[in-house]
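note to self: dont lose this again. the chain is below, predicted strucutre after it. 375 aa total, dont forget to put it in the shared folder this time
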Amino acid sequence: MRIGVPKETVEGERRVALVPDVVRKLIGQGHEIVLEPGAGDVAGIPDQLYTAAGATVGDGAWTADVVAKVAPPQSQELGALTAESVLVGFLAPLTNGAGTKALAATGATAFAMEAIPRISRAQSMDALSSQATVSGYRAVLIAAQEQGRFFPMLMTAAGTIPPAQVLVLGAGVAGLQAIATSRRLGAVVTAFDVRAAVKEQVQSLGAKFLEVEGSADAEAAGGYARELTEEEQQAQRDALAAQIAKSDVVITTALVPGRPAPKLITADAANAMKPGSVIVDLAGEAGGNCALTKPGETYTTDKGVTITSPLNLPSSMAEHASQLYARNVMSLLELMTGEDGAVKLDFEDAIISGACVTRGGEIVHEAARKAAEGA
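---
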């Protein structure tokens, strides 16, 4: 199998689809890797490390049997794809309808990393989780930097500083990583999630699980949270408001795939926080969990509360994010490899069929097709 790794062209995208360690393993399995010059530069991985691992650096990444990317291909890149192309990457199938239609028109067989089924056999390919780990960790560092207060309790000759009170909304992978990182920094952490099943995970990390009276368990298929009714959302917001007001830092991670982010923090709740408090909203790509969020911006309200909603946060830790993503890609590529080392796509396999978005000029992923129809 010949695997191509183009240089990412989306503004702000610093990750690369494969890293030298993974390249070395794939070459050891009999594959050939072609890397576009400079593909890893902004991730801190120069071309010479790829050549030392056995990759070819030069032209031909887009004409390989499989093209491995991070971000969806841009319009100028789509022309390089043909009906023989196999594309792997984050393709935003539920939110990028126009892009999915354009991708289908190339005839390429495209696999979205975010569409890989959440089953135990696919855990090593779960790029959403690997990148959410980066986001959760980074969010806490941003909060600590923006807050201007200590996270841990300090007992000094000049007096005692109480620990920061951190509230994490959403206890998926990003939320759990945010809890763990906040605890490592010495904060007192409380967490909330609409899925009752995560309570034990939250408590195992040393955080308190916030119980909302009358809240129904809202876990949906695949372990994601379902979209709440308006009545459920209002009851949730009311219950959270008191805890938000007591918190020095609130980190929000609540997302429902393909839907606008639920508004967990009202404007009144945000304004009730102490001056100097910080909200880090990780749901900015879907509109944000806070009513006052400005996706992609950091600002301070007239009440003295800093609200930040960084976009594409994993890209800010490009080297390690790329390492994790590359291992996810390698696991998927191994599933696509036949006994002779060539590409073999078994569409009877739940992972292959579930992750496939376009094939033979058509959009074959049902949810992506509906998103494209509405584009």
